[in-house]
Amino acid sequence: MFVQGHEYTLMLNEAYEVLIKDNLRRDYDASIGPMNVQFGRNVSGYSSWKGPLRPQALFVDANACIGCRECVHHASNTFVMDEAHGCARVRVQYGDDDQKINVSVDSCPVNCIHWVDREELAVLEFLIQPQPKEGYGVFGGGWERPANVFVAAKAFNKQLKQQAEAQGRQRNGRVTVEEETPDQAEAKPTLP
């Protein structure tokens, strides 16, 4: 038992050394990939899948959901109520048969249940979760969601793509430096 505890302590100390030093942390972040750097996991999302993977997935926009429970009533193996936030969520993709799922989507009074591409699902599910926000003044922080999760997902994916391209350029040794424009050269102070 003591040897195993000692090994864990050594591993923890090594991890701490890597994460505390900026250059080692950068290498570590690059090794685990851009998605893990952004939100600590591979693209898997909140909901699980029943049966074979399909190209489309269900997503509930929690900002629009009014908590009526219609979807849960019609397809209780697919949808679940998030009591903490007062809105529905997809627990199991295709947990019910297609007819029950379609009835639940059609019965939503505010049309907050969307069919999305499977590849978009994990980012949408991550972004719709309330994120801690920085607090100023007396009231402190709190939690917030993006007002439009679909626009936020597009911006998030664009940012990930830019990070991946930048990392690819750095790995290939082709770090591009923008050339100085004539206006910049003129504005630069000259040293005597």
Automatic annotation (TrEMBL):
Residues 162-192 are annotated as: Disordered. It comes from Durio zibethinus. This is Uncharacterized protein LOC111293438. It comes from the Eukaryota. The lineage of its organism: Eukaryota, Viridiplantae, Streptophyta, Embryophyta, Tracheophyta. Pfam families: Fer4_13 (PF13370).
